[in-house]
Amino acid sequence: MGDVRVPRQLFLRGVAVAYLCAFASLYIQIPGLYGDEGILPARLLVAGEQKPLLQQLQESPSLLWLVPSLGLGPQQGLELICLLGALLSLGAVLLGALRDSLAYLCLWILYLSLYTAGGDFLHTECDSLLLEVGFLAFLVAPCGLLRSSTSPGLHDPVTFWLTRWLLFRLVLCTGLSKLASSDPCWWDLTALSRYYETQASPTPLAWYAHQLPDWLSRLGAVCVMASEIAVPLLMFFAPVRGLRICGFYIQVFLQLCLVLLGGCSLTHLLSVVLSFSLLDDDCFSGCTHQKKKPNQFLLSCLALLVKLAVYVLILLGTIKLFKLEINWEQKIVLSKTNFTQENFSEFVSLIQAPTIWVGVLSLTWEAVVTMLRCACVRGIMGKLCALTQWAIFTATTVAVFTLSLVPYTAVAGVSAGKIFREVQNAYGAVEKYQLVSAYGIQHRMVPPAGRPEVIIEGSGDKKTWKELSFMHKPSSVSEAPPVLGPHKPRLDWLLWEAARADYQHSHWFTGLVQQLLLGKQDVLRLLQVDEAQYPFRVSPPAFLRAIEQRRLLYVREFFPAVHLGDPVLEELLQEAGLKEKFPVLPISDTPLAQALSVLRGHARGHSGPLVLLTLFTTVASILLLKDLVSRSRTPKGPKPKSKPATSEHKSKKPREAHPEASEKNRGPSGRGGRKEGLEERRIDSDRSPRKRK
């Protein structure tokens, strides 16, 4: 690949935007999730660990252990971490000077601290992806200590290559997991028609997509699997630049469709950010029509033939594997899978080793080309500095690539026995830091019976039950689902996943029931910001239960009817580790604690989508003003043409062309030369014929 300065800057700014979304979205939900009166109080985790500080940091790396030294409680410690991360990521979005490796290292440490202490609400695939992408941003971003060196940025293609390898693993593993899960909806190509209904946060456009004819939804499922399996295998590491650019457009279009139909989650945003690794600086430069040399013309023709061959291979392979046929009478396209699960398992086993070797060869090529560039730096010290940077970053890249082979070989249930034992041990040692992760393995089957919903109901007399509606969850069939944007409601998301299992697998659900029975306002704001929409705003319900529904039909009892002091509830709280063992500490009066309380008071009562929309509107306005100011400072209009040189200017040009000769004529000093010239002019004027007369 060529230079990657522009794609690297886009990648770094996109990672900063993703961090900003994550920190701001989580900050709004901290009191209800981890507050002293939240579902999973963070004080139980902090107070329950009585170990030395260094041992605590080694076992569970989190800055939350350092919070007591600042005179803050666990909830305020989490809020401080979120605020610091949001401010730093906002600065990285607006200011290029803050897009430094040190800044991204701080962002990664801050989010890792939240991930470690977050429990079930933060242990999702998108959070693992954000941590891995954030660590790669730390490697890709320029280091402030090396900016004054003689060879800045020569190692960028090597470290930036890791983002393309992560994109390859993410997309390919996501596509393979759909078929490896033995999900009948993907094997009979009816997954998309059910995806619009059963996804966690559908958009209003998903209803219209759900009305599409069945044959078109089947064809869409074929296109999705071809985009996630064939495209990364044949385009992401292709030596032909046009194939990589085509892969970029395909992935961006796929993610855009998912955003329009299923909301803008961090996974979609990070997938687009990672797709910039398929581009180079030439993609952003103006098109120049230059005459090509014979060798370049032959190479262009060869590249064109390779691109056509890949396009034809993908098209013919898709037609054969999914048995695509056109029914001219009905004007539809018929499709069905034309291979078995045994064929698919053999295919996965067959491509695993070659894809690893393709990655090795691609990384070797980037490393060798970068080393040759470093060797061409002028000066011995410049060469030594450039080669030292190259060696350090290349070794780090090779180490991260080697560690990523462990989760990559676990795709589709394939054993990782071929990986060296030392590599597996190293992966186990750093797994808690989320440097590399597995993707697509936790793919859940789309339920054919319809969208499962956990309905929480409250009652005052155990006879009349009222539903507790969630503002971020599609509940009513007659109303359009809410548009969340990049905000991720953690409670609603876990409720959507919990509907596929029992409450025994979701210990946090018991904490939710307890806080709803107590009527804690911080938890109620996770359900409804508008108190008028909550049916028990006057007094909390005396009884609570949860049932599961599919398409408004009763399926089963999800959680038994309980009340405060119920032995069943007490036993469940004991099993979940949520029994009150440590008293709530009073809020300290330090200036930092008071400032955090004031900020929390201003943020209370606002929904997450509204806060993020306001934040992004402000950021967009600032960027627009910066662009307008920079354009106003640049001169407008064509440059004035220089006037033709006169005879005097022409006569003076030869004299100005030889400054050394003029300096010699002037003498050792400029002023002395000027005096001598004046005296010569006076002598010449005295010798003129007019003076003689």
TrEMBL record:
<feature type="transmembrane region" description="Helical">
    <location>
        <begin position="252"/>
        <end position="277"/>
    </location>
</feature>
<dbReference type="InterPro" id="IPR009613">
    <property type="entry name" value="LMF"/>
</dbReference>
<feature type="domain" description="Lipase maturation factor 1/2 N-terminal">
    <location>
        <begin position="123"/>
        <end position="284"/>
    </location>
</feature>
<dbReference type="Pfam" id="PF25179">
    <property type="entry name" value="LMF1_C"/>
</dbReference>
<feature type="transmembrane region" description="Helical">
    <location>
        <begin position="128"/>
        <end position="146"/>
    </location>
</feature>
<keyword id="KW-0812">Transmembrane</keyword>
<feature type="transmembrane region" description="Helical">
    <location>
        <begin position="102"/>
        <end position="122"/>
    </location>
</feature>
<dbReference type="Pfam" id="PF06762">
    <property type="entry name" value="LMF1"/>
</dbReference>
<comment type="function">
    <text>Involved in the maturation of specific proteins in the endoplasmic reticulum.</text>
</comment>
<dbReference type="GO" id="GO:0051604">
    <property type="term" value="P:protein maturation"/>
</dbReference>
<keyword id="KW-1133">Transmembrane helix</keyword>
<feature type="transmembrane region" description="Helical">
    <location>
        <begin position="77"/>
        <end position="95"/>
    </location>
</feature>
<keyword id="KW-0325">Glycoprotein</keyword>
<feature type="transmembrane region" description="Helical">
    <location>
        <begin position="390"/>
        <end position="411"/>
    </location>
</feature>
<feature type="compositionally biased region" description="Basic and acidic residues">
    <location>
        <begin position="673"/>
        <end position="693"/>
    </location>
</feature>
<feature type="transmembrane region" description="Helical">
    <location>
        <begin position="215"/>
        <end position="240"/>
    </location>
</feature>
<keyword id="KW-0472">Membrane</keyword>
<feature type="transmembrane region" description="Helical">
    <location>
        <begin position="12"/>
        <end position="30"/>
    </location>
</feature>
<feature type="transmembrane region" description="Helical">
    <location>
        <begin position="297"/>
        <end position="322"/>
    </location>
</feature>
<dbReference type="GO" id="GO:0005789">
    <property type="term" value="C:endoplasmic reticulum membrane"/>
</dbReference>
<keyword id="KW-0256">Endoplasmic reticulum</keyword>
<comment type="similarity">
    <text>Belongs to the lipase maturation factor family.</text>
</comment>
<protein>
    <recommendedName>
        <fullName>Lipase maturation factor</fullName>
    </recommendedName>
</protein>
<feature type="compositionally biased region" description="Basic and acidic residues">
    <location>
        <begin position="646"/>
        <end position="666"/>
    </location>
</feature>
<feature type="region of interest" description="Disordered">
    <location>
        <begin position="631"/>
        <end position="693"/>
    </location>
</feature>
<dbReference type="InterPro" id="IPR057434">
    <property type="entry name" value="LMF1/2_N"/>
</dbReference>
<dbReference type="InterPro" id="IPR057433">
    <property type="entry name" value="LMF1/2_C"/>
</dbReference>
<feature type="compositionally biased region" description="Basic residues">
    <location>
        <begin position="633"/>
        <end position="642"/>
    </location>
</feature>
<feature type="domain" description="Lipase maturation factor 1/2 C-terminal">
    <location>
        <begin position="435"/>
        <end position="546"/>
    </location>
</feature>
